[in-house]
Amino acid sequence: MEFPECPVCLQTYDGESTVPRVLSCGHSACGSCLENLPRRFPETIRCPACNVLVKFPSEGASALPKNIDLLRLRPGQNADEQISKKPAKRPIDQSHELFPRLWSDEFYRAWKHWVLPHDAVSIDRRDGDDGVERLLLGRIGPVSDSDSSFPIRVGEDRTVSLVRIVSLPCSNSDGLFKFSYTSMVLKCLSVLKDGERNELGLILGAGIVNSGRVCRIYGLWGNLEDGFLYLVCERRNENLVEMINNWMKKLDIRNKVGLNGDDLLSFAMIGTELCEAIIAMHSLRISTGFLSLSCFSFGEFGSVCVDINGVLTMGRTVRETVMEAVSSGSKLHAKEMEILISNLIKKEAFVPPEVLLKLLHNEDILLECGTTLCSVGNKCDIWSLVLVLLSFLLGKDCFEETLEGLEESHSDCSAFYGIWVEKVSSCLDMKFGSGYASLKQALCRSLDFDPKNRPRVVELSRCFRELIVSSELDALASMKLVVDKYGADHCLVLGDLIRIPNKLIKTQRDDSVTGNFVDGLSVGMVKSRDMMGHRDSVTGLVVGGDYLFSSSYDKTVQAWSLQDFSYVHTFIGHEHRITDLVYIDEEQPLCISADIGGGIYVWSISRPLKEDPLKKWYEEKDWRYDGIHALAYSGNGYLYTGGGDKSVKAWSLKDGTLSGSMHGHKSVVSALVASNGVLYSGSWDGTVRLWSLADRSHLAVLGEESSGSLGSVLRLAANTDILVATHENGSIKVWRNDVFMKTMKLHDGAIFATSMLGKQLVTGGRDKVVNVQELFGNELEIDCRHLGSIPSNSTITALLCWQDKLYVGYADRYIKVYYHGK
């Protein structure tokens, strides 16, 4: 058999060096291990078996009793004396989550920092409109995010560009649940396909590399007015296109037959800037698949950079132009191909042949002039880049002239492009003359139909640098840059984000969808029903047996059917306003209520229900007395009350006698909750005190460790290792294993009601809104996901989540239940 051993050091109990000592929670560990356990609070430790905070004597482990039963099982004992006794296990949390999880913790951590606050971005104007969704120009203010891991922090007002990425989830107007702004954005991202999300992540990651060659990306912003999610990028005031056009006009290069050294020096400087921007983008494993001058802008340091939003916008122009050309059928004739290429050039969208053929192939379009397909890699960008540069020298009118008549001279795409490149080369001969052969050769090689025959961008960059600085003096000329080793670069024009997002049609009702409470709330499939019977504010809600019990300031407790939410019975007897109630699920199920006058009433829920209480008793009153404000039960035969006399009292349920009092609070005890062997009491003094349920000793004080006062504690909620206290200023405090973790503002005004299932916290209060949030994290940090809210017309005074239903009690005497419509 296996002999009992210490759960910490795993040594078998021998009764001499390893002696089992019993803690107040009932578990045992050897004395030496207990002595070495960390003590966050004086004279307290956490049980290594169940993690419950228990009292530890100042005299040390020797003052704790020995576990005689375990010693009887030590090696060498008579088998007849051995007793098989399993140690108590920590109770398993059986609670489920009413609101289904919309995404995993990993997904939330990966994307939450990219979501810009809704009020951080404003739209100024649209940059052109030619039937394609163009850039939106706007402003982004300071983004205050307490989390230092936020990728890009905006510290001042800046100009930005915005491009649609995907439509936000829409809801029917009769939907009851309103997703929070962040939840809407994350829900939108969560439904994307893996490829789409990976592409967006690749783009966002490229925007945080502070190289000055790829524009900064601030994050994702949801526009609730038009229902779209936008990518927000840096937008410099300087206009690169305007600057180059002014330079071209001043030098009159396009009208010159031969270029002089100064002209080519300026041309080489521009070419070098554009090449370095493309090289930086390729190092991030991204290629555009096309280029135009609008894909570039000035970066933060004054250098030319790739404008991601400019790329996405022009990419959508490319896709729309291609789709217009193939809308008439499944075959593209030579003349139609010429028109397509001409239209792209007119829009200053230079698409290399392999990318254009791939776009047509993806749409199942056959070409009359042949469909020789080449693999698409990052060498597609040098083809486009050279045409952008040549547009400075030749002008797009010259390009259009070189295309005329080509459809009659060939029947193959490669021949089509080959003849066209020869015409472009002739134009370059006229511009360059007999000199600069290496540069002209590099430019023409870059326009080869087969990408394998094209040079790398870095080679073209070196040709430009030779015109600027002598190769002997150029330290970078000897560097071996490997930027083309990735065979799977992501081509943006072939990706999913280039597709123009359409307006999402409002979700229609689907009676076949069941079990999703949040989605049901948002699309109107979750029904609500008013339960009317009380004449004053509802103060408490509990479920027991087949009933929902509700208490009220009208001095009654009412029972409601859980099947059809109909009224069943009223318990009458209280002489004062009822403040709280609990349900006790034991051999004889009971419902217990307490009032502001100190009365404690025990109601039997055995059928038939009776109006009169099974028994009742009263607290002793004095001139300072202010009644009972909170109730709790822990399953040990005692009822706990918190009252206006600043104490916590324990009452025997057997005969209603006072068993003991716990003192320490400086004001009214307003909230009680029992969890894992500890009784937590919240008070108007702003603190939470911990008491041992085993011996009612005081364990610790919470709330004094955080700076600033949040006002009175109004409610407490506990689940496994998390404790939440709500305050009158609308904030909550969260502890994990009784260690303070975080303060969060959830409401505009006092939080009067809370219900916690699993890690999901539902709160409501003076601002007439039910907020739903999820707490998650680890031992070092904790975070709060605001999932959404349910607006109402009255102050929320009671909440209860039970079996996929949400019960809400209001100050206007109504109870409303939300349930999934079938």
Protein described:
This protein has 822 residues and is an alpha+beta fold. Among the domains are: 1-90, Herpes Virus-1; 105-234, Phosphorylase Kinase, domain 1; 240-251 and 258-487, Transferase(Phosphotransferase), domain 1, CATH 1.10.510; 704-791, Thrombin, subunit H, CATH 2.40.10. The chain has 16 helices and 44 strands. The strands form 13 sheets. Strands 5-6-7-10-9 form a 5-stranded antiparallel sheet. It has a 5-stranded antiparallel sheet with strand order 8-41-40-39-38. Strand 1 and strand 2 form a beta hairpin. Helix 8 (308-325) packs antiparallel against helix 9 (334-346) and helix 14 (437-445) runs antiparallel to helix 15. The longest helix is centred in the first third of the chain and has 23 residues, at 261-283. It is elongated and about 110 Å long. Residues 77-95, 480-488 and 504-515 have low confidence and may be disordered.
pLDDT below 50 for ≥5 consecutive residues: which ranges?
77-95, 480-488, 504-515
| Number of helical regions | 16
Class by SSE composition = alpha+beta
CATH fold name of the domain at 240-251 and 258-487, please? Answer: Transferase(Phosphotransferase), domain 1
Strand content: 25-35%
Distance between the termini: 54 Å
Gyration radius (Cα, Å) is 37 Å
Shape: elongated
The description of the largest β-sheet is: 5 strands, antiparallel
**CATH architecture level-2 label of the domain at 240-251 and 258-487:** Orthogonal Bundle
What is the CATH class of the domain at 240-251 and 258-487? Mainly Alpha
Helix content class: 10-25%
Q: Quaternary arrangement of the chains shown? A: single chain
| Count of β-strands | 44
Query: Taking all residues together, what is the mean pLDDT?
Result: 81
> What topology, given as strand order, has the largest sheet?
5-6-7-10-9
